[in-house]
Amino acid sequence: MSASPRPDPATPQPPQALTAGLRRLLRPLVRLMVARGITYPYLADLLKGLFVEVADADFRIDGKPPTDSRVSLLSGVHRKDVSRLRALDPSRTLPAPVPLTAQVFARWVGDAAWRNRRGQPLPLPRLASDGGERSFEALVAGISTDIRPRVLLDEWLDRGLVVLDDQDRVCLQPQALVPSADEHEKLHYFIHQLHDHAAAATHNLLGGEPHFDRCVHADGLTAADVAVLRDLARAQGMQALLVLNDEVQRLQAAHRPDDPDQPPAQERFTLGVYFFSETVDATADGAPR
Question: Cβ(152)–Cβ(163) under 8 Å?
Answer without folding.
Answer: no
